[in-house]
Design a protein that fits this description.
mainly alpha, 67% helix, DUF6158
Length: 75
């Protein structure tokens, strides 16, 4: 169930803004939100992240964010 604007209807900038806002508010929701608020936050994040991945399947992946990159950093 989508609450708010369907992610597919958001322009790219609006999608990015919504994702940033959700990530900014995650910790407060986890620590202080009701169970319903946390569940809704999680489902909305999944909706928006899913839309992002659908639009940008070839997104840039930082090599240092991969296991091999982490191993090189730790060496």
């Amino acid at each position: 169930m989508t609450m708010g604007v369907d992610p597919a209807e958001l322009g790219d900038e609006d999608l990015f803004r919504e994702l940033r806002h959700l990530h900014e508010t995650r910790t407060d929701t986890l620590f202080h939100g009701s169970d319903d608020a946390l569940e809704r936050h999680t489902s909305r994040t999944e909706e928006l992240e899913g839309e992002y991945l659908k639009r940008f399947p070839e997104r840039h992946v930082d090599p240092e964010r991969l296991r091999e990159g982490a191993r090189l950093r730790d060496a």
